[in-house]
Amino acid sequence: MASLKSVAIKGLKIGGGAPVRVESMLKTRLADVEGCVKECRALLKAGCELARVALPDEVLAPKLAELVKKTELPLMADIHFNHKLALAALSAGVPAIRVNPGNMSGAAGLAEVVAAAKDRGAVIRIGANGGSVGNAQLAAAGGDRGAALVVAVEEQLGALLERGFEDVIVSAKSSSVAETVRANALLAQKYPFPLHVGITEAGCGNSGIVKGAVGIGLMLAQGMGDTIRVSLTGAGAEEVETGYSILSALALRSRGWQLISCPTCGRRRIEVAALVEKLRKIIPADACSGMTIAVMGCEVNGPKEAANADLGIAGSPEGFIIFKKGAFVCRGSMETFEETVKHEIFLTKP
């Protein structure tokens, strides 16, 4: 979205005007390859375009190599502490690695990693987070934790650039929305490299979704971010679905059909929540791409409030009415709901 430079991970272009990509991270331990494959399938079905996978021990490198061969999903090995893990991951065939500047040091080791990445055409993501910031970075940033995250990124970025390596994605994330937004604003102003954005350790359930959406939405709305991950304590597919919801809300990308539904009141003729669930059973999440479907509780103002919807359903005394772009199409009883909706969707083009 925002960066001038781009990189490609297994054919997936990131940055340089490419669509904002949606990422996740495998929750299954790498020792369980078949479990990882199953999770990759679920992520792909949800629309995931890139997934990180933790490689905590060299003994698991053969498992990583096996996983790379068994999934179509592009993988990025998540590396901490030891450059030998990065080398093992690259040897296993991953097209990208993520290194944390806060816990990887040693010029000789880094030189080996750069050489291996160049040889294999791999991408390196510099992933700084709150744990990457130490006293030295804080002092250099005058106590500003957002700026200190940038210092942590720059230390590693400078080392890569000195070695002639520019196939880089940069990332600075914190569990604080304000710190993360500030860090990425500084990085976006200074560097042309693709930005991966997100709020790390956002949490679970509604609070995690809201926190991630607020932070990611703020950055994307300001033109920062080429690839995103919503970090939730839950299934990876939920992260991906939330990511697409954020992009859709900002009119940056859409996947499948988009829902408009009223919050309901005492005027409603139908139970909106129940009708929405019926629709979700009738229409797969990845179907009707680009179409906006509205479910409104009553016919009094439903068609007007959802006048831009490609297809709308509003409650009526007899059952429901169908409208398109605010114009009445037909009415029906709840007994004919599924048949009528399927018919009208077939006739509707976004």
From TrEMBL:
Names of required cofactors: [4Fe-4S] cluster
NCBIfam families assigned: ispG_gcpE (TIGR00612)
One GO-annotated biological process of the protein: isopentenyl diphosphate biosynthetic process, methylerythritol 4-phosphate pathway
InterPro entries for this protein: Dihydropteroate_synth-like_sf, IspG_bac-typ, IspG_C, IspG_TIM, NO2/SO3_Rdtase_4Fe4S_sf
Organism name: Synergistes jonesii
Pathways involved: Isoprenoid biosynthesis; isopentenyl diphosphate biosynthesis via DXP pathway; isopentenyl diphosphate from 1-deoxy-D-xylulose 5-phosphate: step 5/6
Name of the protein in question: 4-hydroxy-3-methylbut-2-en-1-yl diphosphate synthase (flavodoxin)
Annotated family: Belongs to the IspG family.
GO molecular function: 4 iron, 4 sulfur cluster binding; 4-hydroxy-3-methylbut-2-en-1-yl diphosphate synthase activity (ferredoxin); 4-hydroxy-3-methylbut-2-enyl-diphosphate synthase activity (flavodoxin); metal ion binding
Task of the protein: Converts 2C-methyl-D-erythritol 2,4-cyclodiphosphate (ME-2,4cPP) into 1-hydroxy-2-methyl-2-(E)-butenyl 4-diphosphate.
EC supergroup of this enzyme: oxidoreductase
Residue ranges occupied by any IspG C-terminal domain in the UniProt entry: 258-345
Catalytic activity: (2E)-4-hydroxy-3-methylbut-2-enyl diphosphate + oxidized [flavodoxin] + H2O + 2 H(+) = 2-C-methyl-D-erythritol 2,4-cyclic diphosphate + reduced [flavodoxin]
Binding-site positions, [4Fe-4S] cluster: C262, C265, C298, E305
Cofactor binding: number and manner: Binds 1 [4Fe-4S] cluster.
Occurrences of domain IspG TIM-barrel (ranges): 5-243
Known EC number: 1.17.7.3
Keyword terms, alphabetized: 4Fe-4S, Iron, Iron-sulfur, Isoprene biosynthesis, Metal-binding, Oxidoreductase
